[in-house]
Amino acid sequence: MVSKKYKLFGLSGLQNLVFVAIKLVGLLILHTAEISYVHAEEREEYEMINITAGQVGILDDQVGPQRYGLEYRFTSFSGPWGFRLIPAIGAAVANNGARFFYTDLRHDFYLTDYWLLIPSFGAGLFNDSEEIELGSNLEFRSGLELAYQFRNKMRAGIAVFHLSNGGISSQNPGTEALVFSVCIPVRNN
Length: 189
Fold this sequence. Notes:
Helix content: 10-25%
Largest sheet: 8 strands, antiparallel, barrel
Structural class: mainly beta
CATH architecture: Beta Barrel
Distance between the termini: 66 Å
Mean pLDDT: 83
Number of helices: 1
CATH topology: Porin
Strand order of the largest sheet: 1-2-4-5-7-8-9-10
């Protein structure tokens, strides 16, 4: 028996799954953005240290390298349309030698008292490896994280990120990463 691979928009099965999941989460963000803004309340804020581990190249044809990251999230400031924007700086390394140092902005959308949806966008410096060549040292990072916040303010979550140079060089393959994260609040006493 020969199995057939069905492709939607020229994407493989896993790529289709991730594509559909990203679209559904986008719709959820649009739906909850108004709810989050209307029901926003003052929440106790902490700077946070975020530790991540995951896989790079999740939509590529071959299994990508493992990725580990460390990030510092500052307290928020008032951004456009009343959103509280959270600046962050971070570093990620892959077990094949690729490195990414970045800064970004994010916003915490509280879906419930404990569940958060956190979109982010930033830019940074990327050092290629033999397996990951993204065409430029300047790379942009967009991401979406779903996290659970415990009563002690620690968070555990899963995030997907897309790295791309936005077409500033002739080569722009981009790549995606899927990571698990643990966020630890930094309490300044």
